[in-house]
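Exercise 7.
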Amino acid sequence: MPSSRGSFDRGTVPAVATTRWPACRRQGRRRTASRPAAAARAPFLRILGALLLCAAAATTVCAQTDPLGEYQLKAAFLFNFAKFIEWPPSPARDEKTPVAVCIFRFDPYGGALDEIVRGKKINNRDVVVRRVSELPDLKACQMIFLSSREDHMLPEALNSLQGSNALVVGESDGFAERGGAIQFYLENNRLRFAVNVDALQRAQLNVSSKLLALARIVHDADRPKGR
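Solution. The predicted structure, written as tokens, is:
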């Protein structure tokens, strides 16, 4: 599936990013760069401004006091990840096949993901959210989210997805190093994400360097050293 390289959806991410969590203390903004450096980065910031708003200093998440707010933000990230990913062609998909974003078993989003994708398209394809409870059904998904409650199912999920092109996203510690493609994590109350480039290669997914530049890059934990 060709990827959309234009911009992150500005109708979803900023609305979530500016949500206030009263019990949390906002972190200070990063030190402003010099004028020449800022000017050089301007085109990149215009392209990824919405994501930077979420991923950088202005975004504060307090999972303990407002878990729904955290998952609203994660829902916006999930939708926007797809714009920077290119799926390989498949006989089972054409330009009319919806992009399926699947939640495996336990759903922590409370409808937030459905709201984010409602009426949205990626490369003129509708985006649908599906709840999946059986492992064989995961192969019909382009993106799969496993909550921390379902983390124990990751090995079985990855085994069932062998040979498929699904982007597997999770939120548990070590998720990416254990074979997941993208892992959400909190750092100083800010939502970040790690990307396992080995997992992307296995799934034959092409990811924009712009997205990788914002991620913490990791590899499989059992990857031989020197490779």
